[in-house]
Amino acid sequence: MVLATVAAAALCALLSLCLGAVSLTPGELLGALSQGASTVPGRILQFVRLPRTFGALLTGAALGVSGVVIQTVLHNPLAAPNIIGVNAGAGFAVALGAVFFPGAASGVPWLAFAGSLGAVMLVLLISRLTGASKITLVLGGVMISSLFNAAIDALLAFQPDALTGYADFRVGSFASLTMARVGAAALPVAIALGGVLLMAPQLEILSLGDETAASLGLPVRLMRRLALLLAAVLAGSAVSLAGIIGFVGLIVPHFIRRLTGEKLLPLLLASAFGGAAFVSLCDTLARTVFAPYELPVGVVLSFIGVPVFLWQLTSSRRHRG
């Protein structure tokens, strides 16, 4: 199954590089790679297609794995970066940075990480104060998400010029992505992905439940905090690239889990490549279906994500029945 998701990600990446307002055949794509920016296809590839493709792959992989980690450590299949307020927290931190540090573009991934981590800590605090049930975590996350979105709207009202282009950021878009921004986000994503994969055995034990994990000698609280820290890095870096997009961290782990089962390492790897393929494909559809007009990728993700998730819910219910 992991190899199938790798192949799907590679195919979606090829489609992303070839398709657009100006289509490139695989032969022209190879020529553009070799000739660089000296030709029109080379400039299209270098300045438009490559940043979007790499950005979409990186975003999908980060959100897919972040969703698996959050669902595992919170023992909640409805938990996801956008559901529990992680994406909104990252978006608020990025908006705050745009107001007070407008020239610090290289710091955007770290601001997004700080905001996403703050959202996770707030949700955990609320759940601890009110009772850490599954529904409490979800409702607490929805409340935190609403709070951060309101804060973003307040910033937009007071400093509209500092948030130029924020409409695209709010719904999710790769339209203005550059390789510099992709490179700035790639390092924290790579570190966090490596950390999650190294923690896979501990996460496997943690998925058995807190009491069982503690009886096996696992430091449950420490492992949960470390895992959520890595999930926050992944989600925050994705937000710094694509904006506030949803559904990837929710539906990709659900879909992949049906194919791989609950074994965590294959689930993490397949969710990374499956998420990369899904976001890349949605971005390709966003800029080709209504060409020469382009939809924000977040809109396409919502149109696809809602019916897919509803199908997953109904089919799971029939399976249990």
What does this structure look like?
With 321 residues, the protein is mainly α. It has a single domain (2-320), classed as ABC transporter involved in vitamin B12 uptake, BtuC (Orthogonal Bundle). The protein contains 14 helices and no strands. The protein has helices at 2-18, 26-35, 40-74, 86-100, 108-130, 134-158, 166-171, 179-198, 200-206, 210-215, 220-242, 248-260, 264-288, 297-320. Helix 3 packs parallel to helix 8 (179-198). It is globular. The mean pLDDT is 84.
Mean pLDDT: 84
Low-pLDDT windows of residues = none
Give the overall silhouette. globular
Main sheet properties: none
Number of strands: 0
Give me the Rg, rounded. Answer: 19 Å
Q: What oligomeric state is this?
A: single chain
Give a topology summary.
Layout: H1 2-18, H2 26-35, H3 40-74, H4 86-100, H5 108-130, H6 134-158, H7 166-171, H8 179-198, H9 200-206, H10 210-215, H11 220-242, H12 248-260, H13 264-288, H14 297-320
Helix pairs in contact: 1-3, 1-13, 2-3, 3-8, 3-11, 3-12, 3-13, 4-5, 4-6, 4-11, 5-6, 5-11, 8-11, 12-13, 12-14, 13-14
